[in-house]
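Quick question: what would this complex look like in 3D?
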Amino acid sequence: MFIDNYLDNSDIIYKDIRMEMLDHISSEIEDRIKNGDDRDFYYIFKDYMVKNKARLLSDNKQFLKSADRKIAKLLFKDLLSIHGLVVFVVIFYSFYMAFNYYNYELFETILFAVPIITSIFFGLAYFIALKSYKLNRYSVIERVAFPFIIIFHVLTSLNNILKPLIDGNSILIMIAIISLCLTLLILLFKITISLAKTYQIRFTNLV
Amino acid sequence: MSNSKLYKGSLNTIILKLLNEHDKMYGYEITQKVKALTQGELNITEGALYPALHKLEAEGLLDVEVAKVDNRLRKYYKLTESGTKETVNKLEELAEYIKTMQTLMNPKLA
């Protein structure tokens, strides 16, 4: 508990990262005691931290990079898979049908509103799930919010900047871009659920 | 990693090789195993080991298992199927590298 609090106060906020560091430090201290260091635990720990704290904090940053890399890899793998391509084609085709069916102004509203509303819905579902499954403060689970936020900002920027510039010629390109964003959003949501399940099994059931 | 920058490029291979020989290992265990095998010559620091482990995990070469040990959680790493294949490739690469270096450093023995 003492080491855990120390690491938490040293800005190692994610439980899974802290857990691994805590095990490493505890194992090292136990080994030192086993090898004849008869000083109080606190002094052995202090010695260890004086020597290794900077390295541990840098490891924390590296861990976050690995978490981002893991999410990006899962996302692109899913996007290039058959089901990712199917989702994209279905979304693109649905928008294209709506383009032919509704008048231009109504279609334009649908094209921009649907993904933004979807991303808000997914965002809310994500935060509720974090709370109810007690998965907040786990590195990969929290970092998955980052691409969510990026996609949301891309969608709102498209809405604010490009919407007024679209004409009949560029509408298909815009449908493709928005379909891609919506596909990424859906795949990201699927990845989040799968990661949450993995973390639930891996960590929270043991605590 | 402590002693030499030369070891740095081989860290992933060292990890994969050790995990190939053991069912599963945790971070501290890996550092101690390397230290014991090299009789203290090679000392892998946590600052080098954990980023490498996490990178290999992110690449899908390692799988993770968490268990409660001595009232704390311990993260074990083990090879995935693609990790096992990658180990073979990495070991072949390393053997080739050692052979080339030997040829360069000591042409008479080659």
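Answer marked as accepted. DSSP finds five helices and three strands in chain B.
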